[in-house]
Design brief:
The protein is mainly β. It has helices spanning 272-283, 290-297, 331-335; strands at residues 18-21, 27-32, 35-41, 47-52, 59-64, 70-75, 81-86, 91-97, 104-107, 111-116, 119-124, 130-135, 146-147, 155-159, 165-171, 176-184, 188-193, 199-204, 209-214, 219-225, 234-239, 245-250, 254-259, 303-306, 314-321, 340-347, 351-357, 362-363, 365-371. It is built from three helices and 29 strands. InterPro entries: PROPPIN, WD40/YVTN_repeat-like_dom_sf, WD40_repeat_dom_sf, WD40_rpt.
């Protein structure tokens, strides 16, 4: 749920603000030229800034440990140095320097992992001691890696090849290799763990197919086709807390949501030509070439949201607003009704979009637009929101 590889060759934020949701998607962090900011996501589809460092240091990476006071920071001025801070006290807990540029930082309640292009450093979150270093990993210039939020299944996933979509799974508690997944034919672009640490979502640089595996069993559970018209760059994958929905952002204006549970079956045939085609594929699977049958049998998006502007990196989260929690702030949020699933999309333009995700799927409705950092320039095509967070006309 982060924007990986945001540093360009000059060592600055590549065209925008760094944004990332915390591990349970209850808050959002942003790094900008003025420092870093922490935001709480409120039950009325709002956003509340709870801290702004205003250090004047261009911050290119920041992560918060759940809803605690612990934050990890990397600045443009010192891209090889990690700062771990207690933001409520305004104090630095420790700092570590590494041999190369830090590309990603991952946290859970047991471990902190620092990703460099050809190594991974695993720290004990309690005292920040380095417990283990995975050296000579395949070149990983985008810093693609994910750490499971669940400490009982504290697995670290990272690319096992720079030519193929191979995933290495490492046990960050027992400090040993767990298994290897052959996920794609092309190099990996994005990874995501479910909250329970039992499922891993993968996408390759081709961007057409997203797969979900059971870990450590290495069983392929689901396969989804994002589209058939063009290859895209997948920027972020994210599971819902319940593990039944998976969202994906890309370099296009469309955010896709896939459902990981089979819909209830009845005697009525599926709607539409895709439903008819699915039935035909099932009936004639033995007569079709294997590659053709695989493509036709892949799942399609359950829901989708269209961003007002494209061309910005985006991270996504699927959350749930309790009944009676939404609509208290008036405006478009009030019209959305009581509670329900939400699709949250934060972009490197410094904007957070809040969409209603209907139980039946389909097109998601834009409820709120929040500009996270006021000095950020509006994205092309974005309307600056009103003070209550609703979109302007």
């Amino acid at each position: 749920m982060s924007l990986e590889g945001v540093l360009n060759t000059e060592g600055s934020n590549a065209g925008g603000i760094f944004v990332q949701f915390n591990q349970d998607c209850t808050s959002l962090v942003a790094g900008s030229s003025s420092g870093y900011h922490l935001f709480a996501l409120t039950p009325d589809d709002g956003v509340e800034e709870i801290y702004a460092s205003r250090s004047g240091q261009d911050t290119c990476l920041v992560d918060r440990l759940f809803s605690s006071s612990l934050v990890a920071i990397v600045t443009v001025a010192a891209p090889r140095k990690l700062y771990v801070c207690h933001y409520k006290r305004g104090t630095e807990i420790c700092n570590y320097s590494y041999s190369n540029t830090i590309l990603a930082v991952k946290l859970n309640r047991s471990r902190l992992v620092v990703c460099l292009e050809e190594s991974l450093h695993i720290h004990n979150i309690r005292d920040m001691r380095i417990l283990h270093t995975i050296r000579d990993t395949p070149p990983n210039p985008r810093g693609v890696c994910v750490l499971s939020p669940d400490v009982e299944r504290c697995y670290l996933a990272y690319p096992g090849s720079s030519a193929l979509g191979e995933v290495q799974i490492f046990d960050a508690v027992h400090l040993n290799a767990k298994c290897v997944l052959s996920a794609h034919d092309s190099p990996l672009a994005a990874l995501a763990w479910s909250m329970c640490g039992r499922r891993l979502a993968t996408a390759s640089e081709r961007g057409t197919v997203i797969r979900v595996f059971a870990v450590p069993e290495r069983t392929r559970l689901y396969e989804f086709r994002r589209g058939v018209k063009r290859c895209v760059s997948i920027g972020c994958l994210a599971f819902s807390a319940c593990g039944q929905l998976l969202a994906a952002t890309s370099n296009t204006e469309t955010v896709h949501v896939f459902r990981l549970c089979e819909p209830a079956r009845d005697d009525a045939p599926p709607d539409g030509w895709l439903g008819w085609l699915s039935q035909a594929v099932t009936a004639g699977a033995g007569y079709l070439p294997g590659a053709v049958a695989d493509v036709l049998a892949q799942g399609r998006a359950f829901a989708a949201a269209r961003l007002p502007a494209s061309g910005h990196r985006a991270v996504v989260a699927v959350t749930n607003v309790p009944k009676g929690g939404a609509g208290n702030a008036g405006g478009a949020g009030a019209a959305s009704g009581a509670g329900g699933a939400r699709l949250l999309v934060a972009t490197s333009a410094g904007v957070l979009y809040v969409y209603a995700l209907a139980a039946e799927g389909g097109e998601c409705t834009l409820l709120r637009t929040h500009r996270l950092i006021e000095d950020a320039a509006p994205a092309h095509g974005d309307a600056r929101p009103r003070p209550d967070g609703t979109p302007t006309s």
